[in-house]
Design a protein that fits this description.
Helix content of chain A: 40-55%
Largest sheet of chain A: 5 strands, antiparallel
Number of domains of chain A: 3
Number of helices of chain A: 12
CATH class of the largest domain in chain A: Alpha Beta
Strand content of chain A: 15-25%
Order of helices and strands of chain A: HHHEEHHHEEEEHHHEHHEEEH
Shape of chain A: elongated
Distance between the termini of chain A: 55 Å
Structural class of chain A: alpha+beta
Oligomer: homodimer
CATH superfamily of the largest domain in chain A: GAF domain
Mean pLDDT of chain A: 83
Low-confidence stretches of chain A: 1-5, 348-364
CATH topology of the largest domain in chain A: Beta-Lactamase
Radius of gyration of chain A: 27 Å
Largest interface: A-B, 55 and 61 residues
Chain lengths: ~375, ~375
DNA sequence: ATTTAGCACTCTTCTTTTGCGAGTGCTAAA
DNA sequence: TTTAGCACTCGCAAAAGAAGAGTGCTAAAT
């Protein structure tokens, strides 16, 4: 995936980097003179022009029109991200902010991700996304049935990913607490660990058999479980900070903006892209690199969130192609680290309140 | 609330209505000549000009600049919506669409609302919102504690609004299934029906007393309950079809668009507005009418969704001030009717699958 | 007293023009 | 291989011009 550095002299690299940096900062095309001033090079602008011409020929730069400066191409950005990027160190203030805000919002994974995406958005000033990927196979690791009234109960399921899902149910025949706990036991015996496509008829029959004369409620309960599992498969995506998209001049082109908003709205493509990604590190998708239709002039940076080695979500940033990659990468890296810590802490303390985490006295 | 019709002659009304209609359709200022052509009036353009001048003086119309046509003012829209609006009949095709799509998505309230907002958005071509309002006071009507492992359990609570919430908990001391069921019983005895602010120390002490030597887990569990209740208070809002905002020329003004997007993002204001509304019918908020800061040139139309006489949510539409009110009102009306039906059906059938499983009994 | 026709006037908007400046490519010298 | 110099090309922005739409007003007509 990475490009051979040979073929790009040190000077060319320096010039390329200077152009990308300048373009990220200013947004406009960058000319030879500007580089000469802001970069101490021992050559003249003419030389730089020559180098630029070559870089353009190689595909790293583009010229919007004949007599403008150069703009990095997609390839140019790719090279920049892969090889030229200097790491951006987060200020301690930023780190503190992450810690505080995340702690305050600590709770279920969904909420953590959402908060993280918000935070990412406000720290970087781009649009943040929080993703719960599609799971190829979720299963349920624990069932519970809660009796409410003679014809009304609730099915609660703890999924293999740790989420808790529930559904209201009405039995067509009356239900009893006893029957419910029998059913729960039976479910726990037979359905735990099964993904939606592995709930087969023989299993259902076995459960009905065990339920004896209370078999009447099995049908709808199983259907509900099935639905729950399919629902989990779906994946979800939340966007925060859309308004920030507008700050960037390239988005004043309404057509492009609409396309991007549409993509953010549909979510399908992005969800697909993220769900299919295997890397656990930070991914940078620039423009049309991926077969997935992300807007032509924008880039998506995202990082999967792992729990016990499994991907349980992702946070990311969407912005213009010329985004400040150094900062974005650092922010996501920092955030994901904090999330990991939090989740661990969360597991070890109680259900999610930031009361200082100290559990010595145990009451309010 | 409504305006005295006297003071507005029939002809003035007709002219005002014509202007609003034309402005809704075209978006630009409308002139006297245009009205003359599209409206059969027995007078000349000069007369219309005179009338328009008077209408402007009364505050129903505005002139963007000296020699443009007139544009309805906020007041003009208000009068239009209150008195002039002709009812728009939904086509059977649209009704069928609502029915089908909603049925397919039937499930928990959240999902119904979301689907409805999507649908509203695509039917009207404006931006849809789905709202779960802040509840002044939620309480919990049933507790259940699920044992997972020696130091790990789940608290499940059914709220007075019918939602089910859950939290993972870790006890600082080991827990036993027995202790958990004792605690659940105790919670059900003492905490049911209480809103967050009415969980007081004496109650907590009573529970701890009842738990005897297992009192150690009470503290964190109570805190969780408390947090759950506050969380419910929060309200939530989802937006769909943001990209549609861009279709309207008034949004090409980036500044305004950004303001509107910001509002949609913050959600606070809108949530406030909706939560505070008492009317059960359709509400139309135009521009800056409300003290709440909705964007100046846009309008919000929403309708609360009732269940057993209580407001459990709302669906709405956000669009430019010059939106097609007739259509929007009809769509929301239709949707809310369907949602009501669905929720009822949902209650009478099983937990959320449209398998046609027919049930006899049903109470709320 | 109301309505109408006519006309001058005012503003916006669209297009065209013009000038400027930034930046390039090329050539010839170092 | 690098540099200095220069003519050339474009895009951008302000200025100028032309076109049109719509009004307000006045004076005549009903």
């Amino acid at each position: 995936m990475s490009f051979p550095d040979r073929g790009l002299s040190e000077r060319k690299k320096q010039i390329l980097k200077a152009i990308v940096d300048a373009h990220i900062e200013g947004g406009g095309p960058v000319g030879s003179k500007y580089i000469l001033q802001n970069q101490h090079l021992t050559c003249s602008s003419a030389t730089i022009r020559n180098e630029m011409a070559e870089l353009e020929e190689m595909g790293y730069l583009e010229q919007p029109h004949a007599s403008a400066g150069r703009v990095p191409s997609e390839l140019g950005y790719r090279f920049y991200v892969d090889s030229l990027l200097e790491h951006y160190a987060m200020t301690t203030a930023e780190i503190a902010q992450i810690n505080n805000l995340l702690k305050a919002k600590m709770g279920e994974l969904d909420q953590i991700l959402l908060a993280a995406s918000n935070l990412a958005s406000s720290l970087t000033n781009y649009t943040g996304i929080a993703i719960k990927p599609r799971f190829r196979s979720v299963s349920i690791s624990k069932f519970e049935l809660i009796f409410l009234s003679a014809d009304h109960y609730i099915l609660v399921a703890v999924t293999s990913t740790g989420a808790v899902k529930s559904k209201h149910l009405r039995g067509k025949t009356d239900v009893t607490p006893t029957a419910l706990s029998k059913l729960a036991a039976s479910f726990n015996r037979h359905l735990v660990g099964l993904s939606a496509d592995r709930i087969t008829l023989p299993i259902i029959m076995r459960i009905e058999e065990e339920m004896g004369e209370d078999a009447g409620i099995v049908g709808s309960a199983i259907k509900t479980v099935y639905g729950l599992l399919s629902e989990m498969d779906e994946g979800e995506m939340r966007v925060s900070g859309i308004d920030r998209l507008l700050q960037y001049p390239e988005c004043s082109d309404v057509g492009q903006l609409q396309e991007l908003l549409g993509t953010l709205e549909k979510k399908e493509d992005i969800l697909d892209l993220v769900s299919r990604t295997e890397s656990n590190g930070i991914n940078v998708v620039i423009g049309s690199e991926s077969e997935v239709k992300v807007m032509n002039n924008s880039a998506l940076v995202f990082k999967p969130i792992l729990q016990d080695g499994k991907t349980v979500g992702a946070i990311g940033i969407i912005g213009p192609r010329r985004m400040d990659y150094a900062k974005v990468l650092a922010t996501l890296e920092g955030l994901s680290g904090n999330i990991a810590n939090l989740m661990q802490a969360n597991n070890q303390l109680n259900g999610g309140f930031s009361d200082g985490g100290n559990e010595k006295d145990g009451n309010a």
